[in-house]
From TrEMBL:
<keyword id="KW-0067">ATP-binding</keyword>
<keyword id="KW-0132">Cell division</keyword>
<dbReference type="Pfam" id="PF00005">
    <property type="entry name" value="ABC_tran"/>
</dbReference>
<dbReference type="InterPro" id="IPR017871">
    <property type="entry name" value="ABC_transporter-like_CS"/>
</dbReference>
<protein>
    <recommendedName>
        <fullName>Cell division ATP-binding protein FtsE</fullName>
    </recommendedName>
</protein>
<comment type="similarity">
    <text>Belongs to the ABC transporter superfamily.</text>
</comment>
<keyword id="KW-0547">Nucleotide-binding</keyword>
<dbReference type="GO" id="GO:0022857">
    <property type="term" value="F:transmembrane transporter activity"/>
</dbReference>
<comment type="function">
    <text>Part of the ABC transporter FtsEX involved in cellular division. Important for assembly or stability of the septal ring.</text>
</comment>
<dbReference type="InterPro" id="IPR005286">
    <property type="entry name" value="Cell_div_FtsE"/>
</dbReference>
<keyword id="KW-0131">Cell cycle</keyword>
<dbReference type="InterPro" id="IPR015854">
    <property type="entry name" value="ABC_transpr_LolD-like"/>
</dbReference>
<dbReference type="GO" id="GO:0016887">
    <property type="term" value="F:ATP hydrolysis activity"/>
</dbReference>
<dbReference type="GO" id="GO:0051301">
    <property type="term" value="P:cell division"/>
</dbReference>
<comment type="subunit">
    <text>Homodimer. Forms a membrane-associated complex with FtsX.</text>
</comment>
<dbReference type="GO" id="GO:0005524">
    <property type="term" value="F:ATP binding"/>
</dbReference>
<dbReference type="InterPro" id="IPR003439">
    <property type="entry name" value="ABC_transporter-like_ATP-bd"/>
</dbReference>
Length: 224
């Protein structure tokens, strides 16, 4: 489903990855860890093709970074849901319209838009908030709207970039539970985080970025 094959990547004057190799299978839940600045967000950008390798390639589903045409990048992004620490909702639209926006740009019929929004909001337990503005929501609710937006196109992969960074521990647990539920239906999840409490609480694969070179799989110690 996802392959990094001998990937080198640098920003101008800032090397990030050298010979990075990794693989994620369909349906896997993966925590992505590593110290600040090591390249977690950059790795996610390489997946949704906001960045491209200097050499090597990234294969995401049927798309490969070395052959994808620019005009096809939106098709790739429609199949990937992305969630950020700061939610990135449109603050001048209510919850319903934040979700409708994603579907309107692809010309989805109105009836279908409504059906999908109700489904996505019920997945995150927020059908009662569809007419609220983002400023009327708590941080956890905003992140749940962002998750609803991320799943609205039924993606095969969700990328979560420190999605609990602005949330209290209990709310962070709720967000993880929602992503686990979505993952249990076959959507892969890559969850970049510094939140080791969450990692300890959920037995998933852990990929650690180390000096931008290798990715280690760290096996979780079982708690007594
Ligand atoms: N647009 C950019 N131009 C130049 N350098 C960048 C750019 N974006 C990130 N970097 C640098 O690339 C490196 C990796 O950044 P990245 O944001 O991927 O790290 P991260 O592991 O996600 O960090 P954090 O945990 O603090 O969010 C850092 O040294 C950062 O300063």
């Amino acid at each position: 489903m996802l392959i990094f094959n001998h990937v080198d990547f640098s920003y101008p004057n800032q090397p990030v990855f050298q010979d990075l190799n990794l693989q994620v299978e369909q349906g896997e839940f993966v925590f992505l860890i590593g110290k600040s600045g090591i390249g977690k967000s950059t790795l996610l950008k390489l997946i949704y093709m906001d960045c491209f390798p200097n050499s090597g390639y990234v294969q995401v589903g049927e798309f490969s970074s070395d052959s994808i045409k620019k005009k096809n990048i939106p098709f790739l992004r429609r199949k990937i849901g992305v969630i950020f620490q700061d939610f990135q909702l449109l603050n001048d639209r209510n919850v319903y319209d934040n979700l409708a926006f994603v579907l309107e740009v692809t010309g989805t019929p109105r009836k279908e838009i409504k059906r999908r929004i109700i489904h996505a909001l019920s997945e995150v337990g927020l059908t009662h908030k569809q007419t609220n503005m983002p400023e009327e929501l708590s941080g956890g609710e905003k992140q749940r709207v962002a998750i609803a937006r991320a799943i609205i196109n039924d993606p095969f992969l969700i990328l979560a970039d420190e999605p609990t960074g602005n949330l209290d521990p209990e709310t962070a647990d709720e967000i993880l539970s929602i992503l686990k539920k979505i993952n249990s239906r076959g959507t892969s999840v890559i969850f970049a985080t510094h939140n080791y409490e969450l990692i300890r609480a959920y037995n998933a694969k852990i990929l650690k970025l180390d000096n931008g070179k290798a990715v280690k799989v760290v096996l979780k110690k079982k708690e007594n």
